[in-house]
Design a protein that fits this description.
Structural class: alpha+beta
Strand content: 15-25%
Shape: elongated
Radius of gyration: 29 Å
């Protein structure tokens, strides 16, 4: 058995998984065995090439291609946001996500079946002692050999056909093939490339009116194909990531994806008890940035909010703040439970096709401890087409902590103050317009048909505690990235849930003017807790 123990003195581990983009907010956790092997090779080249011969480092790396197990310390997700220069004085915002780990905690990597010779063991000791970082250069690391740590393992490969244990989630991790597997894989790839090249020569011969017999692979063709793949696993681990991606590799040659069981609580950090003379009021807003290779669009806000809702209900053990029901399953009175509201903010390349860029969780009655823990652990939900959607918690606080109209600077318009508000997602009524048996509309004292969309909007605004509007005007659409998007383009019904049903299923938009400034958020009507009936200040 071989075990390596690592500590991160700076309290941070920065590493983006191979198949993810840096701004997606994903962290490679556990560190991939592929990355660990490459870090050892890099350390050898830069610091120990004169002290450890190549045969020894080759043997060590080849033995470490066995799939390891991990003992993961408790961590949390953190990030910084900064602007990088582009060209012509332009900038782009970069989200730098990392795993925050107590500097005294230990990550342990265990290879149960690996045994090193005394020479290899001494060389490995020098390598890990000289290793300065793992991942990016700011991920400082201190490593040493550990004693038998198999009893501490909490992250192991998921065997094919095995059921995921309760309390665990699966995570893809990049692992190197064994040397023998690599040679077999390489031979198969080379034969495929030779066949493809020969087929191209046959097609060229036919095009030129020549016989297929004239199409043969020349020595230079064979040499070029042979050189197109690293000769062995050790060489494959040298490949530059940037060069591989430019060449169109979906993953490095010699690597395979392995599913690991990772504790679902890996990024759940219990709040530290602190001494407070007076406690502040409970936070009512959590705001997330959204990142994915394929972002959901605002027209699918209700569907995306449902996925977030299910994740929060699961992670909070059914907190009534997220379920909207009491312990007996009965709906709560009022609207104190959480609203899940989606934003599509323009600026700095965001929202260019009406994508959802941020999510606000607004809970008027405030977040309890278990609600906060659920929010802290919410890092992703499933996305369509296999593209998971990353959720990066920007902060928790009061609406005024995030409110503003300048979306380019990260402000949140739906929490701002304004006298004039306009629909951003369709308002869906739960009532039908009222009429007499002869078909004559029933009207209220202001001449509005009772149960009509405008009448219902005004009624619900009053019930929610807003000022009575001085005017309400119908609007046919909203602007999504320069395109007028009509309300019929929006998904307007939940897939699950037992809330009030829609009346006609139609969506409506309005411009509301109040007699005085009011504070957001304003979300009214069917599906309001899932982002329908959402209004934004008209100046945005």
């Amino acid at each position: 058995m071989l075990a390596i123990e690592m500590r991160f003195p700076a309290g941070k581990y920065h590493a983006t998984p191979w198949n993810r983009q840096v701004n997606e907010g994903a962290v490679e956790w556990p560190p991939s065995p592929w990355r660990i092997q490459r870090a050892l090779i890099s350390t050898w080249y830069h610091k120990l090439v004169a002290e450890i011969d190549e045969n020894t480092i080759r043997r060590i790396i080849e033995k470490l291609s066995a799939t390891p197990q991990f003992s993961l310390p408790q961590a949390s997700l953190g990030h910084t946001r900064h602007y990088m220069p582009l060209y012509r004085e332009a900038t782009t915002m970069v989200i730098d996500t990392f795993a925050a780990i107590d500097s005294e905690s230990r990550l342990i990597i265990v290879w149960p079946q690996v045994d090193l010779s005394s020479e290899e063991n001494s060389a490995l000791l020098m390598l890990i002692d000289r290793m300065g970082y793992l991942g990016r250069a700011e991920s400082w690391v201190e490593a040493r050999l550990a004693e038998d740590s198999s009893d501490q393992v909490n992250c192991i490969p998921l065997q094919e056909g095995a059921v995921l244990p309760e309390g665990f989630e699966s995570v893809q991790t990049l692992v190197a093939m064994t040397p023998q597997e690599y040679l077999r894989w390489r031979e198969t790839k080379l034969e495929a490339r030779k066949s493809r090249k020969l087929a191209e020569l046959h097609d060229t011969a036919k095009t030129n009116g020549k016989s297929d017999d004239t199409a043969k692979l020349k020595k230079k063709d064979l040499e070029k194909i042979e050189q197109s793949l690293p000769i062995d696993l050790f060489s494959a681990l040298h490949a530059d990531t940037g060069d591989l991606k430019k060449a169109g590799w979906s993953q490095p040659p010699g690597s395979v994806w392995v599913l690991y069981n990772r504790p679902r609580s890996s990024f759940e950090v219990a709040p530290r008890a602190g001494k407070r003379a007076y406690s502040r009021k409970k936070p009512t807003v959590a705001r997330f940035a959204v990142a994915s290779q394929v972002l959901p669009r605002l027209t699918d806000a209700i569907s995306f909010a449902e996925r977030i809702h299910m994740a929060l209900v699961s992670r909070s053990n059914g907190s009534s703040l997220f379920t909207g029901c009491d312990e007996s399953g009965n709906p709560l009175e009022g609207h104190g439970h959480a609203f899940i509201l989606c934003e599509s903010s323009l600026g700095l390349g965001k929202g260019m096709r009406g994508e959802i860029t941020h999510v606000v969780i607004h809970a008027p009655r405030g977040f309890q401890l278990q609600d906060r823990q659920a929010l802290d652990s919410l890092t992703r939900v499933w996305g369509h087409g296999g593209h998971d959607v990353q959720l990066i918690l920007l902060g928790v606080g009061q609406p005024e902590d995030f409110a503003g109209l300048d979306t380019a600077k990260g402000a949140c318009p739906i929490l701002a103050k304004s006298q004039s508000w306009v629909s951003r997602t369709p308002f869906v009524s739960t009532r039908h317009p009222k009429a007499t048996k002869t078909g004559v509309p029933k009207v209220d004292g202001n001449g509005l048909q009772i149960g009509s969309p405008e009448h219902e909007l005004r009624r619900l605004l009053m019930l929610a505690g807003f000022l009575s509007p001085s005017s309400v005007e119908a609007v046919p659409s909203t602007d999504l990235a320069g395109h007028e998007t009509r309300w019929l383009s929006f998904r307007r019904q939940r897939n699950q849930g037992n809330g009030r049903k829609v009346a006609s299923g139609l969506g409506y938009g309005f411009r509301i003017k109040f007699p005085d400034v009011v504070s957001g958020p304003i979300a009214i009507g069917y599906g309001a807790h899932f982002g329908l009936g959402l209004f934004v200040p008209e100046s945005t």
